[in-house]
Each structure stands twice: as C-alpha cells, then as structure tokens.
Amino acid sequence: MNLPFYLQSVVVKAQLSIQLKPDSFEPLQALAEWHQILAANLGSRPAAESNFIGRVRPSGLNDAPLEALELEHYPGMCEAKLHQLAATAAASNNAIAVLVWHRVGKVLASDVIVLVAVVANHRRQAQRCCQELLEALKHEAPFWKKEWLADGSNSWVQGNTPF
Amino acid sequence: MATSKKQALCLRVLLFASLRETMGWSEKLIELPANCPPSSPMQLWQHLGIQPFIPPSNIRVAINQQFANWDAALQAGDELAFLPPISGG
User: Fold this and answer.
1) What one-character DSSP code corresponds to residue A62?
2) In A44, A99, A145, B22, which residue has its Cα 20 to 30 A from B37's Cα atom?
3) A110 with A79: CB under 8 angstroms?
4) What CA–CA distance (Å, rounded) separates B69 from B5?
5) Looking at chain B, which residue has its C-alpha nearest residue A144?
6) From the CA of B35, how many Å to the nearest CA of chain A?
7) Is the CB of residue B85 less than 8 Å away from at least one CB of chain A?
8) How far apart are the first and last CA of chain B?
9) Are B86 and A144 an interchain contact pair (Cβ–Cβ within 8 Å)?
10) Which of A72, A76, A139 faces B16 most closely, judged by CB atoms?
C-alpha cells in the first residue's frame, strides 16, 4: 500500500473488512456479524457508526427500465485499491474499523451493490470517513458497470452518477 | 540470438470492459524487439492499434496494478492495463 510513512502506523490500528461478493448478500446480517467480530476484538462497541447501503437503481440511461447491472473488476488491483482507500480514509479520520463489501457479477435492480460501514469514537469521524471512502471507491477502484435494460439491450456506464 | 532474446521486452497487456469489447481481446502477452521497443503506455497503445489512435482523456493506465502516467517507462515483465472510465459503488 502506497501510504506516506506518517500514516502507516495509524493505519495498522484500523480494522479493515474488505470483500468482493460474487453473490447477493443481506446488508443488515453482514453488519450484525461484523458487530460481533468488533465486539470480540475491541471489547466494546465504539460510540459512533456510519453505514451506507447502495442499491442498483431500477432505471438506466434515459430512465429506461433496468433489469440488472453487470459489475466487472480488475482482479488483484481492485482488492488492493479498496484496502488502500479504506486504510487512507480510516487514518485521516481516526476511524477504528471499516467494512467495504462490494458486489461483482450480475446484480439485479434494487439489490445491494455496496455496503460501507465505519465505526469511530465520534459521529463526525464516522460520517466523514464513510462519505470520503464511498466517493473514493467510486472514482479510484477499478470497477465497471454494464447496464442491462429490460428490452435486452446493454451498454457500459461511462463514469459515475452525480453525488 | 540468445542475447537478443534476453533483451526483448516482454509485457502482459490487459483490456477491460468497453475497451475489451471494442478490441475483441482481453489479454495479450507480447514480446517486443529489443532494438526499438515501445517504451511507454502511449507508445504501446498505438503499437497495438488500439482505437482511437490518440486515447481519450478518460482512459487510465495501470502498470503492475498501480495507476500510472501515459509516459511512464515500461520494464520487461510489467503488467500493463488500459482502464476505461471507472464506475463503482
């Protein structure tokens, strides 16, 4: 991971849970299991937590009905980049632990595509870290989306939706 | 012959998503002549005939799974990837 030396000692303290998921998952169950791991590792639950659950919107370009998104990624680089981005966001916000679960493969409309969770000692740290990390992964993690519309047509998404 | 083979520049080139579909291939292992190898991602893009000849500004480059510049120096054994606009999350 290419982090400045002054961040590396801080990064070691943040617990990272990074997973690429080829199958659908239930985000609340994922969080419940993560909470158990954190409680076991930390002894108690941190005071602040911020969660983001992203779902596939049911419409594509020009508001056409969307059936699914196909998520392609760069194996190896994608996982490494998610770790690096999570570590950087955690270090700059003094977050205690970060979870990023991201779907790959075909994701149906309304299914969960990404789950980001951050625990910290204060709400500002947790919320900022969650937002920064989400924006960073949208622009820096090598994922690509292909839209599959209900009429059977498909096209690659060029860039990200507005903030 | 053995000496020139050792000096050849061997690279693994990867394309993803729309670039892969446009070009019809996802991976190439290429051995370039030692006397005049393309030395940067830009030169290799053009050497491989990837279209358009001048890559759009939203195409990014990764060398050995790290983002890199179009004029970065390539080394033998590098993994070079051309990345269309990223759209995760």
Assistant:
1) G
2) B22
3) no
4) 28
5) B87
6) 31
7) yes
8) 50
9) yes
10) A72
Question: Is A72 within 8 Å of B17 when comparing Cβ atoms?
Answer: yes
Provide φ and ψ at A99, rounded to 5°: -120, 135
Report in angstroms the alpha-carbon separations of A121 from A96, A97, A126, B30.
8, 10, 8, 52
Q: What is the ipTM of this complex?
A: 0.89
Interchain contact B56–A (C-beta under 8 A): no
pLDDT at A3 over 80: no
Q: According to the model, what pLDDT value does residue A160 have?
A: 75
Of A2, A80, A145, the CB nearest to B87: A145
The beta-carbon neighbor of A143 closest among B21, B67, B88 is B88
For residues A94 and A88, give the distance between their C-alpha atoms in angstroms, rounded to a whole number: 10
Q: What is the pTM of this model?
A: 0.89
Alpha-carbon distance B65 to nearest alpha carbon in chain A (angstroms) = 5
Domains of chain A: 16-156 (3.90.1170.40)
Q: What is the pLDDT of residues A141-160, one digit of tens each?
A: 999 999 999 999 999 998 77
Distance CA A63, CA A91 (A): 39
**Chain A residues inside the 8 Å CB shell of B67:** 140
